[in-house]
Amino acid sequence: MAGERKFIRENTNRILIKEFLIKKVEGAGFGGMNIQRTPMGTRINIVVERPGMVIGKGGSKIKEITTEIKDKFKVDNPQIEIQEAGSKASLNAQIMAEKLAEALERGWHFRRAGHSTVRRIMNSGARGCQVVIAGKLTGARHRTEKFTEGHIKYCGETAREVMLRGFAVAKLKAGVLGVKVGIMKPDAKLPDEISIKIPDDEKIEEKPKIEEKPIVKSKETPIKELLKIPGIGPSIIKKFEKSGIKSLEELYEMDANDISSIEGIGGKTADNIIKKLGKLIKEDV
């Protein structure tokens, strides 16, 4: 039980430190923190959008925060490191929740603020996001509005791995509004998304199929042999001869479009000739 109490006490301390930092760096865009124990002391890494507001003039504010954490929470030799969110600020759920709360406090309509936040997050490359605003939005009664776009996971181990969540409070005259922001990471991989890799030794290169043509005899076959094809009469033979085609071999080199382009030869006749021509040449070989 002593070990369990120790873990509970440490985790409770982490939550209290996080709440303390959120209030202390208000306005700087708090994006989360990470606490690590080292042989030299306790390293606290804080992600913020505007580091200058946390550091203060000549490092005065960061020294004040370090002293208060050491005295209030009995942290052994705290060392605070400030990390700028930079271009990834739009994909940080906590920063976006605080920005949305600030917009609501400045008088933005909740629908405009919600849609604007969702659009900004999705434009930054997120796979999905959901913004929830709850409180006295338009009247005296409490209500909840949700703004969702893309793919969202709500519960389970998958949601814990691929979703980033942030929470903030907007203080208005009518009361407080709770703001929740959930963002699915751009590089999130869901359990149902699989890819199959084929080993190199199983890959078989398919050789292009070469269309085999019938062996054509050296002696040319007269065009009159087309009369053996049902539906082909002497008038069609005359039209071929008039166009300069005197053998079946010359006709064999042409396709249906070439044949139908000859004056007086229709598309159906051309298709009929193409179908029967190969067999007719084989018979004559």
Structure description:
It is a single chain. The chain is α+β, with helices and mostly antiparallel strands and 285 residues long. The protein has three domains: 2-84, GMP Synthetase, Chain A, domain 3; 89-184, Ribosomal protein S3 C-terminal domain (2-Layer Sandwich), CATH 3.30.1140.32; 223-284, 5' to 3' exonuclease, C-terminal subdomain (DNA polymerase, domain 1). It contains ten helices and seven strands. It has helices at 2-24, 51-55, 60-72, 93-105, 110-123, 156-162, 234-242, 248-252, 256-260, 267-284; strands at 30-38, 41-48, 78-84, 128-135, 143-150, 163-172, 175-184. The strands form two sheets. A four-stranded antiparallel β-sheet has the order 5-4-7-6. The chain has a three-stranded mixed β-sheet with strand order 1-2-3. Helix 4 runs antiparallel to helix 5 (110-123). The model has no long low-confidence stretch (mean pLDDT 82).
Helix and strand arrangement:
Blueprint: H1 2-24, E1 30-38, E2 41-48, H2 51-55, H3 60-72, E3 78-84, H4 93-105, H5 110-123, E4 128-135, E5 143-150, H6 156-162, E6 163-172, E7 175-184, H7 234-242, H8 248-252, H9 256-260, H10 267-284
Parallel strand pairs: 2-3
Antiparallel strand pairs: 1-2, 4-5, 4-7, 6-7
